[in-house]
Write a structure and sequence with these properties.
mainly alpha
Length: 464
């Protein structure tokens, strides 16, 4: 079940809200746990067992870490057990077949592949539960002694299957003592509508253009202009797909009384690759910095160790996204650019005009999206070669597609900026109060019409 589905919007969500708000306050975490398990099991009921096992392991290990706090060796041992369990769980379901296939290429080695479907959201909830025991050990988060409350945190359906990655310490207070208000409900509903519009009206609308350009490359008719048009389409699709989902998750969380941290901050306005990664998927970037980069030593051990740490973190970032060589290459690609900016390009960029820095950043990022999008490296190499002069410059089909998508592309560009928020903030408070419900109702009606009429409605980050 996905947020931008008629089943979710007009069946699951209304029933969930009714049950949740009719329940006494002391039962609401239990209600949230049960409805979240139902949500998760909608498509793959068998994987509820994995979710429950993850809850049990990390709940008990949190208690053990707290119990042996005065015995650092034992406490660290239980933290290590929790980390190993989560990594083994993630590794088996997500990476076993990839590793088996590659190791079996070595003469004399044959490892079976199981072809097990990837449990949705496993990359997100394993990181969340793993960080819980680490934070309990660091005394950055209180231990949770109620397994139902802990289960509600792990399974919380708004952010369960595609993030943002919510650390226990950021919602611990809300989990135990939240107050549901009409203001939070209204703000959450408005944020949800923003995300739904991003997903349905923008991401879905441009996704077909990327598919068409990729098909042109495979047919041997891609041009330089067409190649860049395709990269532009995918870059906008993945941004509005994922940031739209994050908006919906943050909005739903607010409705239920939780305040999730922001996950995107207009990343396409960045003037460097370093800045881009401070603005894109911030919950993942922060997770790797806090739980991998800094424990490795960060930038404190000299240049050689800093380079090593950057490469390790970005190898893991790429591999986290998927069991395929293109994701590893994508991670190392950005590691390379971050290293260049840190040690070579920093002074150059400081003297470069703002518009040129912006163009440079977008070119680097959108080429990166090409690597990210195409798992077949031979296809990826051929496509990018066409983008950089390996094909004719332009053809009539490019002109037709550009005209067909001109309005959509303009809307995507404007929606990637802060223009909309700036104009909205300039409206008088009374005008905002009147227009908000009108806009929300209109967006729901239009999105519903699109969902009823269309069949193209993927969520790109579900596969991660």
């Amino acid at each position: 079940m996905i947020f931008s589905s008629l089943t979710f919007l007009f069946a699951y969500l209304p029933l969930t809200l009714a049950v949740y708000f009719l329940a006494p306050l002391r039962w609401r975490n239990l209600v949230l746990l049960l409805v979240s398990l139902f949500f998760y099991g909608w498509g793959e009921p068998v994987y509820i067992v994995i979710m429950l096992l993850s809850i049990l392991i990390d709940y008990t290990h949190g208690l053990l870490v707290e119990k042996y706090r005065d015995n650092d060796k034992k406490a660290r041992w239980f933290v290590g057990q929790s980390v190993v369990f989560n990594l083994l769980l993630l590794g088996f379901f997500k990476y076993w077949d990839f590793l088996a296939a590659n190791l079996s290429l070595i003469p004399g080695i044959s490892i079976p592949q199981f072809g097990i479907p990837l449990p949705i959201g496993i990359s997100f909830f394993t990181f969340q539960t793993m960080s819980y025991t680490i934070d309990v050990y660091r005394q950055d988060a209180p231990v949770q002694r109620n397994i139902l409350d802990f289960g509600a945190f792990v399974t919380m359906f708004p952010q369960l299957i595609a993030g943002p990655i919510v650390k226990y310490k950021t919602v611990a207070e809300d989990l135990n003592h939240r107050v549901n208000t009409t203001e939070d409900f209204a703000l959450g509903a408005r944020r949800f509508c923003v995300g739904l519009a991003k997903k349905v009206l923008l991401a879905n609308s441009i996704g077909a253009l990327w598919d068409a350009q990729l098909a042109s490359q495979q047919a041997g008719t891609l041009t330089v202009a067409g190649g860049w048009l395709g990269l532009l389409a995918f870059g906008f699709q993945i941004y509005f797909d994922f940031s739209g989902y994050s908006d919906m998750a943050i909005g739903l969380g607010r409705i239920f009384g939780f305040r999730f941290l922001e996950n995107f901050d207009h990343p396409y306005l960045s003037a460097s690759v370093t800045e881009f990664w401070r603005r894109w998927h911030m919950s993942l970037t922060n997770w790797f910095r806090e739980y991998l980069y800094i424990p490795l030593g960060g930038n404190r051990g000299g240049t050689a160790k800093t380079l090593r740490n950057i490469l390790i973190v970005w190898f893991c970032t790429g591999f986290w996204h998927g069991a395929s060589w293109n994701f590893i290459l994508w991670g190392l690609y950005f590691a390379g650019w971050l290293i260049l900016e840190k040690y070579i390009l920093r002074d150059v960029l400081a003297k470069t005009p703002a518009w040129l820095k912006h163009v440079y950043t977008l070119v680097v990022v959108f080429v990166g999206w090409g690597i990210f999008a195409m798992e077949d490296l031979s296809v990826c190499g051929a496509y990018l070669a066409d983008c950089f002069g390996g094909a004719p410059l332009w053809n009539a089909l490019d002109g037709y597609r550009l005209r067909s998508y001109a309005v959509t592309l303009l809307a995507l560009v404007l929606a990637s900026t802060t223009l909309g928020k700036t104009l909205w903030d300039r409206l008088p408070a009374k005008a905002q109060k009147v227009l908000t419900p009108v806009w929300m109702a209109l967006s729901l009606v239009i999105c519903t019409a699109y969902l009823v009429d269309g069949s193209y409605n993927p969520f790109l980050y579900f596969r991660f």
